[in-house]
Amino acid sequence: MRQQAGTNLPKVGSYNQNVVLDAIRSSGATSRVELAQRTGLTAQTISVIVRRLLNDGLVREDGARPSAGPSGSGKPRTTLRVEPTAGYAVGIHFDPGWIDAVLVDLAGTVLAETRRGLHHSVRPEEAVALMSKAVRKVVRDAGIPQRRMLGIGLACPGPIDQELGLVLYPPRLAGWEQVPLGALLETRTGGPVTRSGVAKNVGNFVYLYMGTGIGGGLFLSNQVYRGPFRNAAEIGHVTVAPGGPPCYCGNRGCLEAVACPDAMVADARKLLADGGGGALAAAYARDPASVDHDAVCAAAAAGDPLARGVVDRVASYLSDAAVSVANMLDVELFVLGGPALGAVGAIYREAIEEALSLRPIARRVHKAPVSLSPAGSSAGAIGAASLVFHRAFAPQLTALLERTMP
Ligand SMILES: [Zn+2]
Question: How close is the Cα of 307 to the center of ligand 1, in Å?
Fold first, then answer.
């Protein structure tokens, strides 16, 4: 694991403080000596910063453990950990199909979560009211003091105009045009809202989300990369089927157009209507049009050839997109998450990992593993919450550059 280096220049106190806090957070437990080694800051600087973090209640000392000297008899090192109760954030993931909300502590533990489905005709005001209700519910369920709430992170369907704070003509939401979703939610909840999303311990990774649509998140060089206009990582709109079916974005053959749940269901219905055999065909012989995404995934996981064919096609499209992303960004890890993984997350994971070991140009230098998000279906919401912590605490090089420019 690589840690972002600190800088011993003057006038960068808060940047260094965030580097140190981030190092403590990502290591779980560490010591002042290890912090100096990992961040490149002097022992004296570390000592001053740690004292400040202890005074602010963001970090706690957890007793001493023996140092790793040859005889184990060196001076004991005090263990430093992040104080989980120092701050909390709510993450909301607004998928056109549902709203997920989670409340997480500073250590990233989920203390409460809730989900509710949405009708596709939901109006913006109604969606905001439901989000606000979900926020109140997780705060109440977790029983945490309001004053420790650092903010709300919101992951929502793109594209967005960050400067104006607008969700622009989001797909799959009938009648939404230019909606100031963040501002509406701030007014409604009274808390600061940070938009977009992602997770820890790896400096460079890609998060691939599969829900109603397909989205992504980029964590590059220890920072969430959102792009200058906050619309980066639209992995769902990478072309994987040139000349393929039209996508609502105006392009053709986008990953989302051929690999989202609706596309899979359409594929399966067509195969069933064409008279395909197997267990799924037998179960839906009377009404092939009633087959749904869950049924297709469950049948594929159980080895039904027709359903497996549908899932394998999606796995192959996902692999194409992942290889393009790996060639472009040279990342260490891919994380797959989202409710549409259904029962077939492991099939996707294996296919993408194999493609990443055989196809990117840098495969002989390193192979990027693929992991299924341990956060499971609420990954988007947890990512949104961690964005609040990132905004509050993660070292932002851009901020440093802005401040040190003459
Ligand atoms: Zn598209």
Answer: 25
* Residue 232, number of CB atoms within 10 A of its CB: 17
In 3-state terms, the chain is what percent helix, strand and coil (to 5)?
45, 20, 35
On the CB side of 250, CA atoms within 13 Å amount to: 3
**Ligand 1 midpoint to CA 160 (Å):** 15
SS3 11: coil
For residue 44, the model assigns a pLDDT of 92
| Overall pTM > 0.85 | no
pLDDT tens for each residue of 258-301: 999 999 999 999 999 998 889 999 999 899 999 999 999 999 99
pLDDT of residue 84 exceeding 90: no
CA distances from 382 to 104, 113, 197, 399, 400 (A): 7, 10, 8, 25, 27
Mean pLDDT of the chain: 81
Find residue 92's DSSP bridge partners: 101, 154
Ligand 1 centre distance from Cα of residue 380 (Å): 20
**What DSSP string describes 187-252?**
HHH-S-EEES---SS-SSEEEEEESSSEEEEEEETTEEE--TTS----GGGSBSSTT-SB-TTS-B
What does DSSP assign to residue 58?
Answer: S
Which phi and psi angles does 396 have, rounded to 5°? Answer: -110, 105
Contact predicate 318/352, CB 8 Å:
yes
- Residue list, CB under 5 A from ion ligand 1: 237, 247, 249, 251, 254
